[in-house]
Design brief:
With 368 residues, the chain is α/β, with parallel strands linked by helices. It has 12 helices and 17 strands. It starts with a helix and ends with a helix. Strands 1, 2, 3, 6, 9, 15, 16 and 17 form an 8-stranded mixed beta sheet that branches. A 5-stranded mixed beta sheet has the order 12-11-13-10-14, with helices on one face.
């Protein structure tokens, strides 16, 4: 009888220990994020982990991967290797990616009730339809920036007024341009030739030969090409650069004196979204993803978009979070400004293919 009692006690203790172990395991989660570098820095990850621990009692391990090309966002969503991604707004509906194939959606619908900070977005971003599919939302805007024209005020005395400055002989070998988002180079080349916003996203509306000839010169005279983001370490020796804003901000943190020009022809701008992949479509994981997005739309995080990334936040910010100069330079809360730029649009497969071919041709002339 005593042996039976001891056996029963052992069983009870074992079950209790197993219960504790299971409970501890249940309080651990891993959040996998594929995002542009700088979007998940140490400060925001630390704040997020503390928030999740306090609110849910969960120890969350945040694992990040920084891509150099937007194709990696698609692959991460397709293969289920990320729970959160930060793609440009046009990616999900681009024909070669198409995240909304019938019966095989790669993204999860977001619940704005779990993202209250989304209500703080300025009207332009609230109204953006890029990640709305059949009336449902599959992502939330995070930041916005141009394929911009930066200039070194120590080498360029007056702010450039036109994209044509890139073809000015005095700046031959003194500028850097993007390589892997080659469509951006066709867009600015077309703008420099006088084409309008409603023409630059369609090869059928351009004189291909005319644009090609000018694009060739743009490639030939560049000091360097960059993938992902421009290289701030090159900026001290350059006069001009195309940039998302990140590299100029980093160069200025090291003593550079770079500014962003406002070409009279206008320019294109991207909106990066936070999207939840099908891999985190439900349950606790999805809730944790929505907590991440909500934190990224907080005033503190959106101020960091300005100060650390050198681009525009999607929410307005109170006085004191950014300087008056930053407010003006990065159009903080300036709803009307965003109506004046050409937000990246989904292009046809024919246009995508043509632009890729044109850029390869331009690079080939550089080698001769």
């Amino acid at each position: 009888m005593r042996k039976l009692s001891l056996l029963s006690l052992c069983i009870v203790i074992t079950v209790a220990l197993l219960g504790i172990t299971a409970s501890q395991a249940a309080r651990k989660e891993t959040l996998r994020i594929t995002c542009w570098e700088g979007y998940a820095d140490a400060a925001i990850v630390k704040e997020y982990k503390a928030l999740v621990k306090a609110k849910y009692g969960i120890d969350v391990d945040v694992q990040t991967h920084y891509p150099t090309d937007q194709d990696e966002f698609y692959q991460a969503a397709k293969n289920g290797t990320a729970d959160l991604i930060s793609p440009p707004a046009d990616l999900a509906k681009t024909p070669r990616f198409n995240c909304f194939q019938q019966g095989n959606f790669l993204l999860s619908e977001v619940d704005l009730k779990n993202i209250p900070n989304a209500q703080k977005m300025i009207p332009f971003f609230q109204a953006d339809q890029s990640l709305i599919h059949k009336g449902k939302r599959y992502g939330v805007p995070y930041n916005c920036g141009p394929y911009g024209l930066d200039y070194n005020t120590e080498m360029v005395q007056e702010p450039p007024q036109s994209w044509n400055v890139l073809w000015d002989p005095q700046y031959k070998g003194k500028y850097t341009i993007n390589n892997n988002f080659c469509k951006c180079n066709i867009w600015i080349t077309a703008l420099s030739l006088g084409y309008r916003y409603d023409q630059i996203f369609d090869i059928e509306k351009l004189d291909r030969q005319k644009v090609q000839e000018r694009l060739n010169v743009l490639a030939q005279n560049a000091y360097s090409f960059w993938d992902g983001s421009a290289k701030p370490e090159e900026f001290p020796k350059l006069a001009l650069a195309t940039d998302w804003g990140f590299a100029a901000a980093q160069a200025n943190q090291k003593g550079g004196k770079w500014m962003v020009a406002a070409p009279k022809e206008g320019g294109t701008a991207w909106i990066d979204y936070w999207c939840i992949t099908k891999a985190a479509a439900k349950g606790t994981k999805k809730k944790l993803c929505e907590e991440w997005i909500n934190l990224q739309l907080s005033p503190k995080a959106q101020a960091a978009v300005v100060k650390k990334q050198g681009v525009s936040p999607v929410v307005n910010l109170a006085e004191g979070l950014v300087t008056p100069t930053e407010r003006t330079l990065f159009h903080v809360g300036d709803n009307d400004y965003f109506k004046t730029v050409a937000i990246w649009q989904v292009m046809s497969e024919k246009t995508e293919k043509a632009y890729a071919e044109m850029w390869e041709t331009a690079k080939a002339t550089r080698k001769k």
